[in-house]
C-alpha cells in the first residue's frame, strides 16, 4: 500500500512538473509575441522625429560586465530579427520584467546625432515564435539548510510542516553497542547534526542508523564542517552493504561481518564483584577476566533479505584460574544480601567464591532473528540493550552483564502520532521480555523492560523506562496474570501482597533527558540518567533515586579534533532507606539478587550505594580513529561494605561469634589510555593500557595495584550482496 501511494505521488509530481514547465514556456512565447505586436504598432504610428540616444556610460552608471544596459522607457523598441537559415544573425534576448524600469532623466544629457527613421520593412517585419529556442524543463529544486551566499543562493524553500514519507520496508540487524559507531554517532549529534538520533535508545539497526545519516547528509556536506564530514564518510563506508554507495535498492546481504581476537594481560589482584565490592573491568558482556593472560576470539555474521535479518555473534573466551573469596568472606557478603550461604545458595553467581577454576566457554554473545514491519523490529534471541544517554553506563540497562534471551518489539524509526506529537514530538518505544539466569533466591525469575522516548524539538529528548522482575520458583508462577499485574500496577505493594501470587514484582523506574544547550548547540550537550526502585518515576521520588548526569563538549574552539566528556554517578541516595546497600538495585523482600544476570548488574556498573565519576579527553585522528585518556573514581561507603573482621580480612562469620569490624567501604581509581587505529579499510586495531589502585579492607589489606595491557585486532571482510 505504501509503495503504491509512493508511486502515485511520484507520478503526480512528475505530471505537475511537466505542466509547470510547459506552462512557463507557453507564457514566455505569448509575452514575446505581444512584444512584437507592440513593436509593429509603434512602427506604424511613429513619426520621423529623431530618437534621443542613451547617455554615454560613466563610472557611476556603467553596467557590470556581462549585464545589458537598461533601456529607457521613452526609447522605441527594436524589432527582433528572425534568424537566417545559416544562423548568422543572433536573437537578442528580451529584457526581463524587472529590467523594464523607467530611466531617470539626466540634467544635461549629452547631444547625439539623430537616429535614422525605421523603414517599413523594419517596422512591418513579422516575428516567428517558432524561431525562439524550445523551452527546456528546469532542473529539480534543491532544498538546503545552509546560509545563502552570492555563489550559492537558495534555490528552493522547504515545505511547511512535517512531510510524511513512505516507510522503509527493509529489515536490518542491530549494531552491537560496543561498536565504534556509537561514539561517532553521538559526536555527530553533539556537533549539531543527526537530529533524528535517540541517544537513550541503543542499539540502532543498520538501516535506522543509515536513515539518521541521510536526514543530515545534505546539511553536513553544505556546512564545510570537516569533522562532521569525516564521521559521515566513515559511517557510510561501514554501511556500504545497505546500498548507500550506488543509490540502488538493497538486495540480499550476507557473510561474515567481522572476525576479531583480543589479548589481555593483567598483573596484580583485580575486583570481579559488581554486586558488592566493584569491578576492574565493566561493560564487557559479563566476560570472565582474572589476573594473568585472558583472551577472546570471535566472529559476527550478518544476513539480511527483505524484511528479515539474522545476526549472530559468538566467541571463545578464556580466563585463568583465581583464588576467589574465602568461605568466611562469602558468608559475610551473603548476609549483606539477607541470603544464607548454604544449600542451593552455595555457591551464588553474585559472589565470586573460590577457588575459581580456569574458564574456557564458547558463548553466544548475540543471536537475533528479526522481522521488520511498519518501522518495528520484532525479534527473538539475544540482543544488546543500552537504555540511557551516558557513555560510561546506563541506569536501566547496559552491556555490563551477559545478554538475556528475550522476545522484543522495538520501534526503530521515529513515529509521528497525530495530536500527541504536536506537543511531545516523534516517539520511539522498546519492549522486551525474557528470563534471568544465575539467581538462586528465588530461582528462574523473569524480567521485562518498557521504554518510551520523545523528541519535542531536535535538540531535546526525554523519556521514561520501567523494568519489572517477577516470578520465580517457590514464589509465584509466571503467567499472563502476573505479567499484567506488574505491567499496569502503579500502587505501592503491601506486605501481604508481596508474598502472594498477586505480587507485581520488583519494579524499577527510570527517567532520562538530553539537551543541546542554546547558543552552543554545536559544542555542548547536557544529559542525565536516573533510576529509582519501588516508585513510579525518579521525578516523583528524587531523594530515593540514583543519578548519572553528564556533559559532553564535542569540540574545543581552536582545537576541533579534541573533545571532553565528564559524567558523575551516584546510587547512594539521601534517605535512610539507602543505608546498608538498600534501594538502588536491591532492597527487595523477595528478589534478593535483584538487578543481575549471571552474577553481574544489568544496569550501571557503579553498583549499589556508591558514588563516582568518569572523564574522557579524546583527540580524533579521523572519523573512526582516536586517542583518549580516561579517569575513573568510585567509592562505596562503610555502612554497606563492612571492614575486616577482627583485623583479618575474609575470616568473619557474623552468625557464629561476636565480631569487631575495622574501617569499611571500597575505593577505586583508574587511569587508562585508549588508541583506535585503522590499517587499511578492513583492519581495525584497538589497544589500551590501564592502571588501577583500589582499597577493600574486607577483602585484602592495604592498597592494591593492578595493570592491564590489551590489544584487539578486528577484520571486516566485504559483505556479499545480491541484487533485489
Q: Determine the CATH topology of the largest domain.
A: Porin
Q: What does the overall shape look like?
A: globular
Give the amount of beta strand, in percent.
25-35%
What is the count of β-strands?
23
Please give the alpha-carbon distance between the first and last residues.
19 Å
Summarize the amount of helix as a percent range: 10-25%
How many helices does DSSP assign?
9
Architecture of the largest domain, according to CATH?
A: Beta Barrel
Give the uncertain stretches in residue-range form: 1-81, 83-107, 115-127, 154-165
Structural class designation: alpha+beta
What's the multimeric state? single chain
Q: Please, how many domains? A: 2
Mean pLDDT: 80
The name of the CATH superfamily of the largest domain reads: Capsule assembly protein Wzi
Can you summarize the main beta sheet? 18 strands, antiparallel, barrel
Q: Supply the CATH class of the largest domain.
A: Mainly Beta
Rg over alpha carbons: 36 Å
Characterization of this structure:
This protein has two domains: 181-242, no CATH class; 252-722, Porin (Beta Barrel), CATH 2.40.160.130. It is built from nine helices and 23 strands. The chain has helices at 2-45, 120-123, 181-190, 206-223, 226-238, 327-336, 420-424, 480-488, 495-498; strands at residues 252-267, 272-273, 278-279, 292-305, 308-318, 362-373, 376-382, 405-411, 427-435, 446-457, 460-470, 506-516, 524-533, 546-553, 562-570, 596-597, 600-601, 611-622, 625-636, 666-679, 683-696, 700-715, 720-722. It has an 18-stranded antiparallel beta barrel. Strands 2-3 form a two-stranded antiparallel sheet. A two-stranded antiparallel sheet has the order 16-17. The radius of gyration is 36 Å and the shape is globular.
Amino acid at each position: 500500500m505504501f509503495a503504491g501511494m509512493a508511486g502515485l505521488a511520484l507520478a503526480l509530481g512528475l505530471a505537475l512538473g511537466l505542466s509547470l514547465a510547459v506552462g512557463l514556456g507557453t507564457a514566455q512565447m505569448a509575452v514575446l509575441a505581444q512584444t512584437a505586436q507592440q513593436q509593429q504598432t509603434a512602427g506604424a504610428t511613429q513619426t520621423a522625429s529623431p530618437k534621443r540616444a542613451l547617455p554615454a556610460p560613466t563610472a557611476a552608471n556603467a553596467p557590470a560586465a556581462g549585464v545589458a544596459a537598461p533601456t529607457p522607457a521613452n526609447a522605441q523598441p527594436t524589432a527582433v530579427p528572425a534568424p537566417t537559415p545559416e544562423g548568422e544573425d543572433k536573437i537578442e534576448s528580451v529584457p526581463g520584467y524587472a529590467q523594464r524600469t523607467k530611466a531617470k532623466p539626466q540634467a544635461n544629457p549629452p547631444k547625439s546625432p539623430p537616429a535614422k527613421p525605421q523603414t517599413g520593412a523594419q517596422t512591418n517585419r513579422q516575428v516567428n515564435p517558432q524561431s525562439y529556442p524550445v523551452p527546456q524543463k528546469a532542473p529539480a529544486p534543491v532544498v538546503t539548510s545552509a546560509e545563502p551566499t552570492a555563489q550559492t543562493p537558495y534555490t528552493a524553500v522547504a515545505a511547511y510542516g512535517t512531510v510524511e514519507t513512505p516507510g522503509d520496508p527493509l529489515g536490518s540487524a542491530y549494531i552491537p553497542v560496543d561498536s565504534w559507531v556509537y561514539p561517532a554517532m553521538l559526536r555527530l549529534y553533539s556537533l549539531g547534526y543527526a537530529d533524528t538520533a535517540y541517544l537513550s535508545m541503543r542499539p540502532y539497526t543498520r538501516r535506522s542508523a543509515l536513515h539518521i545519516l541521510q536526514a543530515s547528509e545534505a546539511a553536513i556536506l553544505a556546512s564545510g564542517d570537516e569533522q562532521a564530514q569525516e564521521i559521515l564518510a566513515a559511517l557510510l563506508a561501514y554501511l556500504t552493504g545497505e546500498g548507500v554507495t550506488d543509490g540502488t535498492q538493497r538486495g540480499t546481504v550476507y557473510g561474515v561481518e567481522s572476525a576479531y581476537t583480543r589479548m589481555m594481560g593483567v598483573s596484580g589482584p583485580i575486583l570481579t564483584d559488581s554486586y558488592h565490592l566493584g569491578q576492574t573491568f565493566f561493560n564487557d558482556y559479563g566476560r570472565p577476566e582474572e589476573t594473568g593472560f585472558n583472551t577472546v576470539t570471535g566472529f559476527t555474521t550478518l544476513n539480511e533479505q527483505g524484511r528479515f535479518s539474522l545476526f549472530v555473534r559468538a566467541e571463545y573466551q578464556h580466563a585463568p584460574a583465581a583464588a576467589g573469596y574465602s568461605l568466611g568472606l562469602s558468608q559475610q557478603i551473603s548476609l549483606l544480601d539477607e541470603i544464607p550461604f548454604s544449600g542451593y545458595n552455595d555457591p551464588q553467581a553474585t559472589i565470586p567464591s573460590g577457588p575459581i577454576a580456569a574458564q574456557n566457554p564458547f558463548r553466544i554473545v548475540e543471536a537475533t532473528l528479526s522481522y521488520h514491519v511498519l518501522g518495528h523490529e520484532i525479534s527473538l534471541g539475544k540482543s544488546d540493550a543500552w537504555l540511557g544517554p551516558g557513555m560510561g553506563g546506563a541506569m536501566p540497562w547496559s552491556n555490563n552483564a551477559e545478554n538475556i534471551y528475550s522476545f522484543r518489539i522495538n520501534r526503530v524509526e521515529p513515529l509521528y502520532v497525530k495530536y500527541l506529537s504536536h506537543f511531545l514530538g516523534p516517539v520511539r518505544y522498546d519492549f522486551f521480555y525474557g528470563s534471568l539466569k544465575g539467581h538462586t533466591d528465588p530461582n528462574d525469575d523473569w524480567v521485562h523492560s518498557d521504554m518510551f522516548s520523545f523528541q519535542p524539538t531536535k535538540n531535546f529528548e526525554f523519556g521514561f523506562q520501567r523494568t519489572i522482575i517477577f516470578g520465580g520458583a517457590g514464589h509465584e508462577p509466571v503467567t499472563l496474570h502476573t505479567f499484567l499485574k506488574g505491567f499496569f500496577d502503579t500502587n505501592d505493594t503491601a506486605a501481604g501482597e508481596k508474598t502472594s501470587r498477586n505480587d507485581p514484582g520488583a519494579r524499577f523506574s527510570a527517567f532520562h533527558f538530553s539537551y543541546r544547550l542554546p547558543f552552543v548547540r554545536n559544542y555542548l550537550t547536557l544529559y542525565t540518567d536516573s533510576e529509582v526502585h519501588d516508585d513510579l518515576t525518579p521525578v516523583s521520588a528524587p531523594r530515593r533515586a540514583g543519578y548519572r548526569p553528564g556533559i559532553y563538549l564535542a569540540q574545543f574552539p581552536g582545537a576541533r579534533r579534541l573533545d571532553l566528556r565528564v559524567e558523575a554517578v551516584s546510587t547512594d541516595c539521601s534517605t535512610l532507606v539507602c543505608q546498608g546497600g538498600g534501594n538502588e538495585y536491591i532492597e527487595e523482600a523477595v528478589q534478593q539478587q535483584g538487578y543481575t544476570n549471571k552474577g553481574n548488574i544489568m544496569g550501571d556498573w557503579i553498583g549499589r550505594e556508591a558514588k563516582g565519576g568518569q572523564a574522557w579527553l579524546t583527540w580524533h585522528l579521523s572519523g573512526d580513529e582516536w586517542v583518549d585518556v580516561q579517569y575513573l573514581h568510585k567509592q562505596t561507603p562503610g555502612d554497606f561494605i563492612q571492614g575486616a573482621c577482627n583485623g583479618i580480612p575474609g575470616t568473619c562469620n557474623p552468625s557464629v561469634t561476636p565480631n569487631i569490624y575495622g574501617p569499611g567501604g571500597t575505593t577505586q581509581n583508574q587511569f587508562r589510555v585508549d588508541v583506535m587505529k585503522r590499517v587499511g579499510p578492513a583492519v581495525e586495531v584497538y589497544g589500551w593500557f590501564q592502571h588501577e589502585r583500589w582499597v577493600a579492607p574486607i577483602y585484602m589489606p592495604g592498597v592494591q595495584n593492578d595493570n592491564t595491557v590489551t590489544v584487539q585486532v578486528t577484520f571486516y571482510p566485504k559483505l556479499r550482496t545480491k541484487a533485489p
